[in-house]
Amino acid sequence: MKKSTVSPQLKKKIDDKRHWRSIRHTKAHEEARLQKHKEKLYRDIRSPWAYEVIAPPKISIYNPRDHERTVIFLENLRKAFSKHLKIRICFRDTKEIAAAGGLLFIAEIDRLCTHYPHVKVDCTHPPRRHHGKFKNESYVIESILNQIGFFKLIGKPERKVQSYPTVSCWQLSQGRVAEGSIAGALINQIDEKLPNIAKQRLYRGAIEAISNCVDHAYPTMRPDGLKILDDRWWMFVGIIMDKLIIIVCDLGVGIPSTIPKNYSEATIRAVLEFLKVSKTNDSELIHASTYLNKTRTKMAHRGKGGKDIRGLLDHYPGANLGIYSNKGCFKDGNKITKSGAKHAFALKDEQKKSIKGTVIEWSIPIGELSQ
Question: Which terminus of the chain has a lower count of CB atoms within 10 Å, N or C?
Fold first, then answer.
């Protein structure tokens, strides 16, 4: 465009833009902008109703590094709820939410929101990710938060995002009593065509785990400093990668803390000697608990908690069991090789920090349920 053809109004607009652009690029303007930004950050830090808690890259308890980060995140959440009127949970770094870690997280949020109803909770939506050869947009983390009911708990509207098969398969339930109606309904929703014997075995294992969470532990206050007595349990049931997954969580004192109260010292020592164990850390006590068969309820139809929790491993060769309680982790099951041979394994791992509760997870191949 020739200069002679530019109208006076357009020329003035161009000159004004150049003028303000030159001002923005001056050192004084940049210093003023940075000062305003610092003042805003200072106000946010000083404000008692705008405290930010940053979620870890992976909300998971399956390996030591993620376990420690997730536990620290949950500790920060408890501190924030107890000291601030408004908190914001930031998911900007979160790239993965695993099943057991996600259940522990939603249980903690449910507990805190129930007992601190005056605290206003907000969150930053997880950023979209790009995956695959063509860098397609993915909203997996936000879809998981929708599925587990996180936004409903904090009172924030859900956005409509894409649904994913690995997310929509999960069903969440929670309750206070160890009745079979909730767990039985969930198991039936997964596959109504399961043989009755398979349903009975699944039912018995799941209900006994819930019973251990609710009835078997002594009604002691959870040692997190909040003085909240919450005897609820939370449960995930889903099918993923041709396996039925059942996960039960409670936020009580944990299995290692209840064993010395439920069993005599001689009984515990006898089981540890049978297992050829000399230590008495959380992982070893969890392992021992799967062989103990006495409960606090003293009821005739109960009292086989450990055997019921392990029972699915006896009936299904490809089944696996994982128990996470306080600092301890115990995994038991069978590994099937390509030749069809079965190799039993039992792994124990002691973590640095306690989840202050219990998470029990079963994994059973769908093909074995139909046999």
Answer: N
CA 229/CA 251 separation, integer angstroms: 9
Identify which of 119, 161, 122 has the alpha carbon closest to the alpha carbon of residue 138.
Answer: 161
What is the number of other CB atoms lying within 10 angstroms of the CB of residue 345?
A: 10
Surface-to-core class of residue 309, CB atoms within 10 Å of its CB (0-12 exposed, 13-18 middle, 19+ buried): buried
Contact by Cβ (8 Å): 355, 326: yes
Helices (H) and strands (E) in the chain, counts: 14, 14
pLDDT tens-digit readout, 228-261: 888 888 988 888 888 888 898 989 888 888 888 8
> What are the extents of the domains in the chain?
27-157, 169-371
Do residues 88 and 51 lie in contact, with contact meaning Cβ atoms separated by under 8 Å? yes
Pair type for strands 136-138 and 171-175:
unpaired
The pLDDT confidence band at residue 313, using thresholds 50, 70 and 90, is: confident
Q: Give dist(CA 78, CA 354) in Å, integer.
A: 14
SS3 of residue 207 by DSSP: helix
The CATH architecture that domain 169-371 belongs to is: 2-Layer Sandwich (3.30)
Contacts of 163 (CB under 8 A, 6+ apart): 143
For residue 322, what are the β-bridge partners?
331, 361
Helix (H) or strand (E) holding 88: strand 86-90
Q: Where are the alpha helices (DSSP H) in the chain?
A: 8-24, 27-46, 64-83, 99-115, 140-147, 150-154, 165-168, 180-190, 196-211, 255-262, 265-274, 282-289, 305-315, 366-369
- How far is residue 243's CA from residue 368's CA, in Å, rounded to a whole number? 9
Q: Which amino acid is at 25?
A: H
The pLDDT of residue 293:
60
Q: Please count the other Cβ atoms lying within 10 Å of the Cβ belonging to residue 125.
A: 16
0.70 cut: is pTM over it? yes
Contacts of range 188-195, beta carbons closer than 8 Å, 24 or more positions apart: 189/237, 190/237, 190/238, 190/239, 190/244, 191/239, 191/244, 191/366, 191/369, 194/369, 194/370, 195/369, 195/370
